[in-house]
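User: Hi! I'm working on a homework problem where we have to compare a predicted structure to a textbook description. Could you give me the structure for the chain below?
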Amino acid sequence: MQSTSTLELALAGLLQQKPQSGYDLRKSFATMAMRHYSDSPGSIYPALRRMETRGWITSDPQVAAGTEDARRRRVFSVTAEGAAALVAWMEQPVTRDDIVSRISGLMLRFAFMDGNVLRATALRFLEQFERELGLHVSELLKPSWEEMKSKFPVHTGVLAFQSGIQAMEAQLAWARQAHAWLREDEQ
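Assistant: Happy to help. Predicted structure tokens:
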């Protein structure tokens, strides 16, 4: 897959759910848990142009409802090529680098899986997520409390590290539960 930003993939995922204008997409980013993606026109509209150039989306100019001056807004839709790129992204294996550096991107991938990929793909994603996150957490837990205190003489450093580990453990517990729910739902 050519160099694609996570923002572009988030936009493709939202557009796969339903065609939307740039303004509608901005509102989605501003009001949903995707807030860490910029809802700025300076980010979204250039990404939409790149996606349109790439053939991932098309746009249809429409008269904005309730306007007398016949202003037009562009409503974007995902093309078959864009949908295929979205599926290819979702089907990528979960790697250790993803766990360490791109965990929010992993959750974004998982969020868009329903209706786009087979349930088996979502289950495989969760299996890989559990395995990689479990290995990462176990590596982080290898040092003992005393070893940690010797590395971070200021206790706030140790406590901050401990907070990160506990957050990962909570996410691992969630992944195990989500995996069980999806397996159960599949039967």
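For your comparison, note the following. The chain has two domains: 6-89, 93-186. Residues 9 and 183 are 27 Å apart (CA to CA). Good luck with the assignment!
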